[in-house]
Amino acid sequence: METRLILIRHGQSWHKLRGVVGGPRGCTGLTDLGREQAGRLRDRLARQPALAGAALYSSTIPRAVETATIVAPALGATAPVRHPGLCSYLIDPAADGLPLDEYRRRFGARGGGVYRPYEEGTEAWGQLLVRVGAALHEIAIACAGRTAVLVVHNETVQASLTAIGELPIRRHFEVAIAETGVTEWATADDPGAGGPPDWPMARWTLVRFNDAAHLEPAAPAPAPA
User: Fold this and answer.
1) Backbone torsion region of residue 29, taken as left when φ is above 0, otherwise alpha when ψ lies between -120 and 50, otherwise beta
2) pTM of the predicted protein model
3) Is 146 exposed, middle or buried (CB count within 10 Å of its CB: 0-12, 13-18, 19+)?
4) SS3 of 201, please?
5) What is the band of 207 on the pLDDT scale with cuts at 50, 70, 90?
6) Per-residue CA distances from 220 to 103, 163, 176, 189 (Å)
7) What's phi and psi for 30, nearest 5 deg?
8) 55: pLDDT strictly greater than 70
9) Pairing status of strand 205-211 against strand 182-187
10) 75-122: per-residue pLDDT in tens?
């Protein structure tokens, strides 16, 4: 039986447009465009019968929860399971909702990088990667042989490239993740495999990456003959 993890980035959010730190308080959910994006994705997923009954998860941040709630009817779900391991960077609560310039001025830390944060009280990339990787594998094991749809963040999707795809922790290229873009991982192996003596880790396939076809304009109707 195949295990599938379908990662969806949330729709356009107010915190992004307003340029503020979007933690649990600073995030005020989706814009009108963000809700439209999520609705288009819902309609697209509803045309895929194989997704009926899929498990639905989201991070605990409002923009991801709202996106997942809009998508839920396409899966026959009522609400997502909120998983804190799927969140973007964890931040100091005192920074939540601050304008980004003020956040960097007040909390900026020298020497930031993979293992040291760029702002005090915020996770470093390596810390986020461990947390997200643990959450992805936990969900894969819980949903072994099934499909799980995870509504998450740009950083969560990027972390999956290392946590599941085993790319280096530092990449020499950038990737772009569209709002409501879909990234899918699948494996026919046991997602819980691993450990001594031979470490038989599951081998995953990246089925699609950043698929946002539902956001493309509809083709014009053909002219009458």
Assistant:
1) left
2) 0.93
3) middle
4) coil
5) very high
6) 45, 41, 28, 43
7) -90, 150
8) yes
9) antiparallel
10) 999 999 999 999 999 999 999 999 999 999 999 999 888 999 999 999
Integer Cα distance of 48 and 213 in angstroms: 14
The 10 Å Cβ neighbour count of residue 214 is 17
Structure tokens at 30: 């989706």
3 state DSSP class of 171: coil
The C-alpha R_g of the chain, in whole angstroms, comes to: 18
DSSP character for 60? Answer: S
Tokens of 188: 């026919």
Give the residues across from 211 on adjacent strands: 182
Average pLDDT for 45-59: 96
Residue 102 contacts residue 92 (beta carbons within 8 Å): no
User: In the numeric block, which tokens belong to residue 89?
Assistant: 């960077």
| Strand partners of residue 148 | 5, 55
pLDDT for residue 225? 67
Q: Domains for the chain: give ranges and CATH numbers.
A: 3-215 (3.40.50.1240)
Angle at 116 between CA 115 and CA 120, to 5 degrees: 150
Task: Quote the tokens at residue 1.
Answer: 């039986």
Q: Bridge partners of 208?
A: 184
pLDDT of residue 162: 96
